[in-house]
Design goal:
heterodimer, A: alpha/beta, Rossmann fold, 2 domains, 12 helices, 36% helix, B: 433 residues, alpha+beta, Cytochrome-c3 Hydrogenase, chain B, 14 helices, 15 strands
Chain lengths: 251, 433
């Protein structure tokens, strides 16, 4: 059986998701043996438009990005959105809150018309996405699990329960008990509760669980006088593309 | 030999982000040479407006995955300065320790994964793994050590969690400190092997003296704190950076260009080396000497060697810091200091792996950002990259188009440009007219 050809692409983002792939020190050589990486902008010179699987980091923020993502969508048979920017628009969406025209003026002044910039959107606003490796940065091992699943033809298992479940499993003191607000009760697990494990609140970088009104840790929120809506509204670092968040629940 | 040349590399690869290089030569004269940055602008300065004082470090960390610790610290320091917050000595020592490991991780990634394939004549680290597996093994081990250190202290290798305004949300345990010390001691074997490998590579012989700018302080090889210092002889308090450094928007780039004393300057490992050579550990100086790196050095390609010398220094100094922290005793009560949000302006300056990094915030009385200005190392280097290439291309104009293209790409990669940072990638175009 020939190895599947994989392209790894960065649209608009920080390169951290591609770096997390390079940070797979223990699995990197196995990975490059299991698949043929034909495009990886951050790491290799060779580039090819012949790939079956595309891993895409970053959100769509310019007309040029729109062209690039549509081309990737035309070529790849399977598309994996990697990281919050690709999955939900991520932190880049804070620009939308400020307003695209105002942001251009603030940063580039009277040269603002030289700059190509549009409202930020996640990649699935433009192309079909098959799998989502959520998080900022994403969990490296989840990326490996998705690739492994694709090779052997099974569906990757992505948790649909809140971060609180992992936090309890890790025996953490609930950060609400030390006076910190935490988005864990409504946020999709899969990060091994890494922020609460560092004694700080979850910022919701993996997006909401499906149907947060049913699946959230509502009791914990009620104990602290909060509702699901309260904390969803309180946090917009990674979830400023609200429309997308609402859609997230049906994913 | 070519009289006319049209080179267009789009994108230039093995750099962090997206950039294109265009060179037009007619009758052996350069008609056009631009390093174009079409990377999408991110607008972090706008994203920050209105955010509460504890958020900017988390937001600006996302400017760059590779130097997320540097952005985190520039941001935290700006906020602490604006609000008069003084972190404990323990916090500062732990920050310096984690900082060394972002520098090691980033320098190793660049020297071995991104630049080394040029020196060994392979297209990428993937083909390098087939032709020189021992080089890739060393790189992976050293990078893993550095990432593990950032994970242990920061809670995560990319975008650290525990480093916040005022201190640390959680401290490493004494046991973890001892494990890190053991990992560091174990890394010397690989450093020695790396030295032997690097001695065998040919660094292109190209010199162009320019202005080199970095931070500097009298106590150490400055990465975390110091004045801003230039090889042109000036030194200023970091809060006064605007007195010397200016930014301008240029037509072909979403990244701004920067100027200080001359029409361009260089930041990064070589600039640090040129300004602060005497503060390196004796061991790091020995490595520099064996690799033929002497201060001042005007060969941009030697930036890769300076990066490796810094790895040695960072390993040495990390052991010293761990011993110091353990001797003083880890103290939970010193993990955080009290914070009283208030209005004020503060400038946070650090050396990111790619060079001088400046965050400048103005807060209102509610402790929310009114105004932010960020100056990124790669922005500072763009004008110098173009000037270097304008000097390099005529020197090698007798070579074939492929050789010229490769030399130009290597020169750009020598800067380790981090383009997603500075827009706030690389394509080379040599175009025949």
């Amino acid at each position: 059986m020939s190895k599947p050809k994989v392209g790894i692409f960065g649209i608009t983002g920080c390169g951290g998701c591609q770096l997390e792939i390079l940070n797979l020190e223990d699995q990197l050589l196995d990975l490059v043996n299991a698949v043929e990486i034909v495009h990886f902008t951050e790491a290799i010179t060779e580039h090819s438009d012949n790939y079956e699987i595309a891993l895409v980091e970053g959100s769509i923020t310019t007309e040029h990005d729109v062209e690039r993502i549509k081309k990737i969508g035309d070529i790849a048979k399977i598309i994996v959105a990697v990281g919050s920017c690709a999955v939900s628009g991520g932190l880049n969406c804070l620009k939308n809150l400020y307003g695209v025209e105002r942001a251009k003026e603030l940063v580039y002044g009277d040269k603002k018309d030289w700059i190509d910039s549009i409202e930020v959107k996640p990649i699935d606003e433009y192309i079909r996405v098959d799998y989502y490796a959520r998080g900022c940065p994403p969990n490296r091992l989840e990326i490996v699990d998705i690739i492994r699943s694709l090779i052997i033809g099974r569906k990757p298992e992505i948790p649909n329960y809140p971060v609180c479940v992992e936090c309890k499993r890790n025996g953490n003191t609930c950060v609400y008990d030390i006076g910190i607000t935490c988005l864990g009760p409504v946020t999709r697990a899969g990060c091994n509760s890494r922020c609460p494990s560092s004694a700080t609140g979850c910022e919701g970088c993996r997006g909401l669980i499906d149907d947060p009104n049913i699946n959230a840790q509502k009791d914990l929120l009620a104990e602290n006088g909060l509702t699901v809506e309260d904390i969803i509204n309180q946090f917009n670092l990674y979830n400023a593309c609200k429309k997308v968040e609402a859609k997230e629940s049906s994913k | 030999m070519v009289n006319n040349l049209n080179i267009e590399v789009s994108p230039v690869t093995r750099v962090e982000g997206h950039g294109d290089l265009v060179i037009n030569v007619k009758d052996k004269k350069i008609e056009k040479l631009i390093f174009r940055i079409p990377e999408s602008p991110r607008f972090f300065e706008a994203m920050l407006v209105g955010r509460k004082y504890d958020e900017p470090s988390h937001i600006t960390s996302r400017i760059c995955g590779i130097c997320s610790v540097a952005h985190t610290f520039a941001s935290i320091k700006a906020t602490e300065r604006a609000m008069g917050i003084k972190p404990t000595e323990q916090t500062i020592n732990l920050r310096k320790l984690i900082y060394h490991h972002e520098n090691i991780q980033s320098n190793v990634l660049h020297v071995y994964f991104l630049a080394a394939p040029d020196f060994f004549g392979t297209g990428s680290v993937i083909s390098l793994a087939e032709t020189h597996p021992e080089v890739v093994d060393i790189a992976l081990r050293t990078k893993k050590m550095a990432n593990d250190m950032v994970r242990i202290i920061g809670g995560r290798a990319v975008h650290p969690i525990r480093t916040v305004v005022g201190g640390f949300t959680k401290l490493p345990s004494e046991q973890e400190m001892l494990e890190m010390r053991k990992m560091l001691e174990g890394s010397y074997t690989d450093l020695e092997k790396s030295l032997e490998i690097l001695k065998t590579i040919n660094i292109p012989d190209f010199e162009r003296e320019t202005e080199y700018i970095s931070i500097s302080n009298p106590y150490e090889y400055a990465l975390y704190d110091g004045n801003i210092k230039s090889t042109d002889g000036w030194e200023i308090d970091s809060q006064d950076y605007l007195d010397k450094i200016s930014e301008e928007v240029v037509r072909h780039s979403t990244a701004k260009h920067c100027r200080a004393n001359r029409d361009s300057y260089m930041v990064g490992a070589l600039a640090r080396f040129n300004n602060n050579y005497d503060k390196l550990t004796d061991n790091a100086k020995k490595y520099a000497e064996e690799l033929g790196l002497k201060a001042p050095c005007y060969n941009t390609f030697m930036n890769n060697i300076a990066q490796f010398v810094e790895v040695v220094h960072s390993v040495d100094d990390s052991i010293r810091l761990i011993d110091k922290i353990l001797e003083d005793g880890l103290n939970e009560e010193e993990a955080m200091v009290d914070i009283k949000p208030c209005a004020g302006r503060g400038v946070g300056v650090v050396e990111a792996p790619r060079g001088l990094l400046i965050h400048d915030y103005t807060y209102n009385e509610d402790g929310r950002v009114d105004k932010a200005n960020l100056i990124i190392p790669t922005n500072m280097n763009y004008a110098n990259i173009e000037n270097d290439m304008k000097a390099l291309v005529p020197e090698i104009i007798e070579k074939s188009e492929d050789e010229i293209r490769l030399a130009c790409e290597m020169l750009i990669r020598a800067y380790d440009p981090c383009i997603s940072c500075s827009t706030h990638m690389l394509n080379v175009k040599l175009v025949n007219k």
